[in-house]
Amino acid sequence: MDLQTFLTQTFRSWSPDPPEQISRTQHDVTLRWTPGSWRFVEGQLLYRIERREKIPAWVLVYSGGKTTKTIENLAPSQPHKFRMKVLLKSSAVNNLSQFAIDHFGSEEAVYKYFSQEVENDDDNLGDDDKHNEKNDSLGDCTDKKPSDNFNGNENTSIPNGTGDHQLKQVVSNSQSRPWLESRYSGQVWTATDSEGASVICFCMAVRCGYLKQIQQMLEERPQLLEVINSVNGMTPLITAVRKGDTPTVRLLLSSGSAVDARSSSGQTALQLALYCRRTGIAQLLLEKGADVAIRDLNGLRAEHYAVDSNSLESVQLVYCGGGQLEVKDNRGWTPLFRAVLQGADIEIIEDLIKRGADTRVVDVAGLTIADAARLLKDKSYPRDAVVRLVDPSYPHEQAVTHFTRLTRKIHSMQTLFK
């Protein structure tokens, strides 16, 4: 057997090493491969990379002369299988023996080198490789298309895929000359990176106060700090605040959570901390620069939430942190107005009045605070106690009421004696 025929048969029976993965992301993997024993014709080789699919069984993802390629647009957290075939350009086939002699120095050296390579390949081919080879050959028979045949004569075309224009150009110049194809390489498994911890898992970890898991998830996906739970519309920080979990709040703040991040209804962590009577957490948020002037969708500020909590400590804290007395919500209600309407403890109403809250405020419906106080039902304290605080004319009104009642009694007695 002459050298040209020997090399041609050796190339056709050669199974190259499978590509290796050198890097990966969530949506792509980068593969690298080598020409192996045929490095002396490296410039004349083209590579065909295929990815395993269901229908068809194998899909061409690259064809060209490069030895590295990034396969893009892959699903995250998914395994992917690749294989490779090497092709020798038709322009180099007739000169293959001369290329080998120039590289190795003599025909004897060429025979010796490739004979050893063939023996090594046979020794390294295990039962699993033979089984895969058989399956691949069957798959090639069923899935092969005319455009996939590189050994045809006329009308032979090379699929471009995502490869170089070099492949198409070579084919157009060598329509009548055969290409040499190697066997397919072994199959290599790769996988894209996962998208990291899910939003649901992170929100659950925050709700349960699992500090170690929270920290690990944030190291993997820092953007989880600002996600909004689709179930309750709350950020992780607000969730921890409502639960009263101070260690988790500290961890989230130290990890970079925005202290004024809002929920889907526009509420901030400070507003809910005051409303839930988490004064320790509210103090921490104020120290971190929480803004008391932010309004929710109803125009309520931190001062209104403090009053709605019916906690004197929350009210005192928000005003020590820069709260204002005359801010109004969308209905025109000041904190004092809301305290009266919400039936807040009389200590809160007294505290607001002592701080200088205006008792003559009128809301958008034209209702005064005194009118609102008269609409209250007696609770743990008499209604008149609130009216006395918010109505400047209350003493005169009470005197008129007593005089009218006394006059009616006198008139009744006079009528009785007649």
TrEMBL record:
<feature type="compositionally biased region" description="Polar residues">
    <location>
        <begin position="148"/>
        <end position="160"/>
    </location>
</feature>
<feature type="region of interest" description="Disordered">
    <location>
        <begin position="121"/>
        <end position="166"/>
    </location>
</feature>
<dbReference type="InterPro" id="IPR036116">
    <property type="entry name" value="FN3_sf"/>
</dbReference>
<dbReference type="InterPro" id="IPR036770">
    <property type="entry name" value="Ankyrin_rpt-contain_sf"/>
</dbReference>
<dbReference type="InterPro" id="IPR002110">
    <property type="entry name" value="Ankyrin_rpt"/>
</dbReference>
<feature type="domain" description="Fibronectin type-III">
    <location>
        <begin position="15"/>
        <end position="109"/>
    </location>
</feature>
<dbReference type="InterPro" id="IPR013783">
    <property type="entry name" value="Ig-like_fold"/>
</dbReference>
<dbReference type="InterPro" id="IPR003961">
    <property type="entry name" value="FN3_dom"/>
</dbReference>
<dbReference type="Pfam" id="PF00023">
    <property type="entry name" value="Ank"/>
</dbReference>
<keyword id="KW-0040">ANK repeat</keyword>
<feature type="compositionally biased region" description="Basic and acidic residues">
    <location>
        <begin position="127"/>
        <end position="147"/>
    </location>
</feature>
<protein>
    <recommendedName>
        <fullName>Fibronectin type-III domain-containing protein</fullName>
    </recommendedName>
</protein>
<feature type="repeat" description="ANK">
    <location>
        <begin position="265"/>
        <end position="297"/>
    </location>
</feature>
<feature type="repeat" description="ANK">
    <location>
        <begin position="331"/>
        <end position="364"/>
    </location>
</feature>
<dbReference type="Pfam" id="PF12796">
    <property type="entry name" value="Ank_2"/>
</dbReference>
<feature type="repeat" description="ANK">
    <location>
        <begin position="232"/>
        <end position="264"/>
    </location>
</feature>
